[in-house]
Amino acid sequence: xxxxxxxxxxxxxxxxxxxxxxxxxFAIRFAARLLFLFIAGxxxxxxxxxxxxxxxxxxxxxxxxxxxxTKKTLFPLLDQAAQQSSRPVAHLVLDxxxxxxxxxxxxxxxxxxxxxxxxARLLPPxxxxxxxxxxxxxxxxxxxxxxxxxxxxxxxxxxxxIGRSLIEPYALAAGxxxxxxxxxxxxxxxxxxxxxxxxxxxxxxxxxxxxxxxFALAGYRPSGAxxxxxxxxxxxxxxxxxxxxxxxxxxxxxxxxxxxxxxxxIYGMARQVTTPIRQVRQSFDxxxxxxxxxxxxxxxxxxxxxxxxxxxxxxxVIQLPILVLLLAIGSRLMSWLGQGFEIGYWAxxxxxxxxxxQSALGIGDLVFVYLRxxxxxxxxxxxxxxxxxxxxxxxxxxxxxxxxxxxxAAYALRTVLRSLVLRRSFxxxxxxxxLAGPFAAAAAGAVAVLVIPNAWAAAAAGLALYAATLLVWLxxxxxxxxxTGFAVEQAATLDKAAxxxxxxxxxxxx
Length: 510
Description:
Structural class: mainly alpha
Shape: globular
Helix content: over 70%
Number of strands: 0
Order of helices and strands: HHHHHHHHHHHHHHHHHH
Mean pLDDT: 83
Strand content: under 5%
């Protein structure tokens, strides 16, 4: 085995270890999410839960802008700060925290004003009240993203696992339950959101501080250079994050505006149940994102195809059985979460398929993030436009199922456009042979589910056929599920190892 192959294998194993640790956290987190959904569905009902879902979607939209893209852009900035060594690296994190806090509080004020002024036909009164209560946590969530990213740069994934998977969701569930028993009504769910956010933030700040040996607060002074570096990296990537957040939530806004809070609660419940599919991808992101960044920086986009393909293949292999399982037992699961929620079954299945498209095949978006972020923005805008038009046509006719179809159409368009742009503009082609097996196995499992009437028997048969088909494909093609193609050289070798046109940069004029 060559040295480069050894290095790629080492990088793959590092990513896998981080993914396994994070996946365990996500499993625990989903158990907490189910507890929260049970509390919200059974105790608060579809109407109040729908108001909370709308308010949460708006808060998360603001967080996407208020965090200034630091979940992604912080890594190269910290690499550069570490090379200069003229100032503690942790002080750059504090510079970023200062900017994130300022931007987030400004947005919180704007959203609170919107909650007071928007007419009921655009924002239901219950959703406006929930938004008014939850808006200050835009700053809390933005800082939480920042400090967890800072810890990940030190390869301390456990803080994200524990903070996001244990502390935040269980504090959310506990706060929501306490709000119900205290008779707070509409305010109970926002109380849970405050509890989850603040508890996780306190833990994240402590974890990041330990990762850096302390923040050396006594010697900290805001650095003009540090603030400018964070601010310079923010606009294009913040815009991408903002429109990506809108892209992922515009269906919720349209359901709320066209159908009201009750159907939004059912639709929001279906979206929440699909969370494990997204979390499979997120479990890899802690170490996958910096590894992809380094690979692109050293080899350019065109030399990153194998790494992106192997990661996509592995994520699909894990995600698709969840889709098969939801196809089999989704109706029963929705009815368990609350009366009337089972009517969201087909919306649930369609949303699950959409999540697979976006989260697994969306790894290629990292190329845009690190090389030409405005291309990612243009693709997002095109997808949003299709999603809005499709939703406006389908929601009045098909209700929440139409909204799910609109989201699937938007994600499918982005998948096609992403592939075309990566091939033509970056000479990056993800081998389709890496992806054919998982999709074929999922199709076989889905057929078994649809022909067997008993839900639990259908689930068992569908998963068994999925596994058997996948194993046959692996043996016939000789492919493996390992992560390959990643570069592990230190960022300090960037200038020597990478061609000039593939350097790691943030372009403003693409």
